[in-house]
Amino acid sequence: MRAVGFWPERMRMARWLVRTVAASPLGERLVLQGGTALALVYGSPRPTRDVDFAAPPEDMPSPEEVAAVLPGARLRRDMRASVPPFLRWSLPWEDPASGVSLALPLEVVGVRVSGVVLSRVESDPPGDPVPVRVETLDEILVDKVVACLGRLRRRGRIKEVDIFDIAYIRSVAPGIRPDPEAVARRMADYGEPLDVDAVRRLSDMLASGRAARALAGALKRRLPVGGISGMGPEEASASALEVFRDLVRAF
Questions:
Q1: Most buried in the list 63, 109, 200, 220, measured by CB within 10 Å?
Q2: What is the CA radius of gyration of the chain?
Q3: Could you tell me if 101 and 166 lie in one domain?
Q4: Domain total for the chain?
Q5: What is the model's pTM?
Q6: Which of 6, 187, 183 has its CA nearest to residue 103?
Q7: Which residues are within 8 A (CB) of 232 and not within 5 positions of it... i.e. 6 or more apart?
Q8: Which letter does DSSP use for residue 70 in this model?
Q9: pLDDT by residue (tens digit) across 98-126?
């Protein structure tokens, strides 16, 4: 049986994929990023559509290395010559609990990560944790800010789940702020100029209330239960707004 939106199955597969990679020789080179890290390590309720890792540009895994660890993985995008280098695989998997067949994207981007901690990802059901190198919350926050600014500059819009993630990070780490210099460095890693006007436009968008309405719709589609630790879409947008207003003042 094939399915597109089955979140419990997707999260079981993401957990299996991360644990498999972490237990292999690739685990010493790759760092778990983004929404997958937030869900599997930091307790976010938001399920993820893909699994993201980072590696130093000069130490990107080859397709052959990934195939040895994940038989059946199909290389969909090979952009090792781009800035930054980027690889994307599609991995078919059948959930043993439900029989649902999925294809989960695996992405590796060639950027240097300065904030890394060693955490553990449990099996499902729990009982067999595997050590995993994962970005710190500060590093993930910078990534999410850069994702919002880059998407707004290129496409004129943002992904509501990035606003969700920023608000979630601030709900579990009160007072956390992205380092403006780290934001500028990461923008350069992605070949993006630091567009101060985009920071202002994003602040205005979040202040308008439109983002809160879009986030409310995204939460209904993504979450089995609403809210971020009791925080609704309006509060989440307001929390993200503080981040971008701080950046406006810093830049």
A1: 109
A2: 18
A3: no
A4: 2
A5: 0.92
A6: 6
A7: 216, 226
A8: S
A9: 888 989 999 999 999 999 999 999 988 78
> What's 42's DSSP letter?
S
How many beta carbons lie within 10 A of that of residue 13, not counting itself? 22
Total residue length of the chain: 251
Q: Encoding tokens for residue 73?
A: 């993985």
Residue-wise pLDDT for 164-211, tens only, equals 899 999 999 999 999 999 999 999 999 988 889 999 999 998 888 777
Among candidate residues 135, 163, 191, the one where a domain is terminated:
135
Q: What's the CATH number where 183 sits?
A: 1.20.58
3-state class (DSSP) for residue 102? strand
Q: What is the pLDDT of residues 221-236, one digit of tens each?
A: 766 544 555 677 888 8
Q: Which residue from 45, 50, 43 is spatially nearest to 17, judged by alpha carbons?
A: 50
Residue reference for tokens 């890792």: 53
Two structure tokens written together for 204: 């205005």
What was the pLDDT predicted at 174?
A: 92
Per DSSP, 176 falls in state -
